Amino acid sequence: xxxxxxxxxxxxxxxxxxxxxxxxxxxxxxxxxxxxxxxxxxxxxxxxxxxxxxxxxxxxxxxxxxxxxxxxxxxxxxxxxxxxxxxxxxxxxxxxxxxxxxxxxxxxxxxxxxxxxxxxxxxxxxxxxxxxxxxxxxxxxxxxxxxxxxxxxxxxxxxxxxxxxxxxxxxxxxxxxxxxxxxxxxxxxxxxxxxxxxxxxxxxxxxxxxxxxxxxxxxxxxxxxxxxxxxxxxxxxxxxxxxxxxxxxxxxxxxxxxxxxxxxxxxxxxxxxxxxxxxxxxxxxxxxxxxxxxxxxxxxxxxxxxxxxxxxxxxxxxxxxxxxxxxxxxxxxxx
Length: 335
Hints:
Layout: H1 20-23, E1 25-34, H2 42-58, E2 63-65, E3 85-86, H3 90-102, E4 105-114, E5 117-125, E6 131-136, E7 156-159, E8 162-166, H4 175-183, E9 188-192, H5 209-220, E10 224-227, E11 230-231, E12 245-246, E13 250-252, E14 258-261, E15 267-276, H6 299-318, H7 321-331
Parallel strand pairs: 1-2, 2-4, 3-4, 8-9, 9-10
Antiparallel strand pairs: 1-15, 4-5, 5-6, 7-8, 10-13, 11-12, 13-14
């Protein structure tokens, strides 16, 4: 449970209790699970994640965050849709089960088929085993738009432990996400990533998690947990992604303290963060325009490349009849 702000004083105590500001400070023990994912093997990935979740819970974690598309594996290839699941598919059921059994909050995203479309959907589950909320990625990152569409909507989930801002990978580099977290007064922010470093193949690098998380902490005054995958794509040529998931997961507290800064190895990072109303900046705004200039991967040229890829990919997705038929077949599948 959350170590909270409404603890009762002992009977007969003469103290008036902590000042009002202290009453608004709460502690949350959060874990980021930095792990590999095997392509198309949802069962193996969930089994691997189960062991990490048990490890995190044994260390007292109350909230366990997994990478984007954790059970899906690598993506952005012709067989991506083969790993899609219906809305109440295996990943969503696994999250509910692991939360109930370990009594933790847990979250990851999966490739969802709903109607004639695909989405990158993040699901959060509560210790009761109930779904607490879900968020669909609003802006696919460049070529991701060949494989799923974005959906606008709130990226803040209200829960008994606070308002949780959810930024799915590349979304965190767009102004809309940071602005929503500010406007809806998020208490902490989580950033599930599946962000490869493509510089070895002439593409864009993956930014370090500490830099990204610290920017949000500085602008909002709330804790941030960012998690990324590690390892390479398991696909053989010609579908092999010439890149590597570099990890670099991070947990940064609301005062700017870097509590976890991970390398490129699998593992669990755990830290206690402070949810402190007094540290929130309550700024009038945090950014303007579309992209956040100081966070753009590859600078202005990188931002332009991503935007160009996105426009072409989105057009292809919309006109693809196979996509529609595939999504309808999967979304209609019984879980």
